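Lab meeting notes turned into a lecture example. A postdoc, R.K., suggested we walk through two folding results consecutively so the class can see how the record format repeats. The first protein's sequence and structure tokens come next.
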Amino acid sequence: MCQMNVLLEHDGEQEKIMDNVARLEVTGEGILISALFEEPKLVKSAWIKIIDVQGGTITLNNKV
């Protein structure tokens, strides 16, 4: 199973917002991320900036 870490980029900095993400869903409100043993988290107005499969990270941004 391939699980990813999700980062949120803002002002040139990256903040880890969830480890071991098993599901990522784009919704009308933003991006819903889910891990196996945590409550799902909605990152409002977010978009996917980078998916680094080899590095195991997904970088989101929510600045317009």
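The second example is placed directly after the first for contrast:
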Amino acid sequence: MSVSNFSRCVVGVGAAVAILAGCGGSQPLVSAPAATQQSAATAGRRGDSGKAHHATTSTEFTVSGRAILLDGQPLFIKGVDYGTSQIDSIYDQAPVANPLDNAYKGIWKTDLDLMRADGVNAVKVYNVTLSSFKDIKNYSMLVDQQPFPKETGKIDEFLDAAWNGGNHPIYVVLSLSFGGANVLQPDYKNALAAAYKIMASQYGAYPAVMGISIGNEINAANLIVQPDWWTGLNDMNTAIKQGFREANNAKKITTTTMIDGTKSVLGKEYLVTVYYGEKFGFKNDTWGIDAYRGPTLGKIWEQIERSTTKPAILAEYGSTAAYYPPSTAKHGTNYSCVGYPPGSDKKPYYGLPPPRPWEDATELKAGGNRNPGMQNLVDYVTTNQKEIFANSPGQAGLGVDSGGFYFEFSDEWWKSGWSHKHIGGFIGNLITTNAEFAGCYDDEAWFGLYANKKSGAGDKPYPLDAGRNPDVRAPRPTLDAIKAEWAQE
């Protein structure tokens, strides 16, 4: 199959592709593990001896073989995909448009503190918009086709806070959102390359910046087979590298975020996008791969090894925490869900009478013999993380990945299509089955390690409503599960 059935859904917004994301009781904030209380020179590394290092004011991210290097030493990424959208946010509204904007410090400052305590050493974001883009030739094309057209401000305060003076820094992968087909439109592609260059030149010298991702899930089957499409991505890659050179010759990496899918060549399976990217000479430093394959990532490691010699990052992995009480679906003996009600293969409904089942969505239940239940999700997250680490350089596996970004840090209610109530489904209230997910269905608003709780009064999100405070983050059992794994890695 050209695109894996285990990938999350995407939806078109205008001419671009927007990524759809995907409440336990409050738990006390725990101290950061000793292994995370390190300087910039050691944070997040495998096998560090714990020797003291002095924090520096610059960082170098390079690649060697299949490893990503931080200041010359292998880095294992213990990351989360991150956004600051709040309850009542809609997709083109602050703070969705530019999650790292200085104006949203009330949100991201607390989030960074939580991440440090959790053992996170990196975040990946999906979009940053800058007022300086206005000087780009054909800038208006970007405004019309970006899902987040509103100009926003600087992100320097976030990057400084992420660096934290070199005390357990959290490294950042930046990106711009665009539609894959736009790469084949010369004026648009040139404007986008110019925007990437500006981003790299403005922020490349910040020590918290790891690098830049060229898009997100833009690898449609009809595009990846076209050499000209890869030439367009190479133009963006070149522009980013030029921007880094202008930023005091910053050494940072370029990566991607591609939907998982396989291709058979002479009886052997390859990752289809990586296969064509290598065939047509894509000059990225690393490959980012979204992988939603169930409680085990299976043969992806052999497929990575066969498809590329570059470092690979799991750009997204995880599962939804939503549960649909009206459904009869449950996990069979081989984990995959069985017993779906009649009509489960139909959209937008899965065969149940009113009320609409997505309005009855709730969090997976803990304890007892609930099936599906929260323990399914905890097992899923734990096994995925163990496999990712086991297959990183220097470990017992194939040594083909440098860690990953768990999808995602916190829930995003707007991705269900209704930001005022935590319902299921995704934009358009469509519900589809996914037998490999812990809750048996795709539902884009429930992927967080943290659920959200509304704080304050008003029907607009913080900071748009004076009566609102930032949402309160409510940790799920999956957080403890992945923290336990990160602490050992």
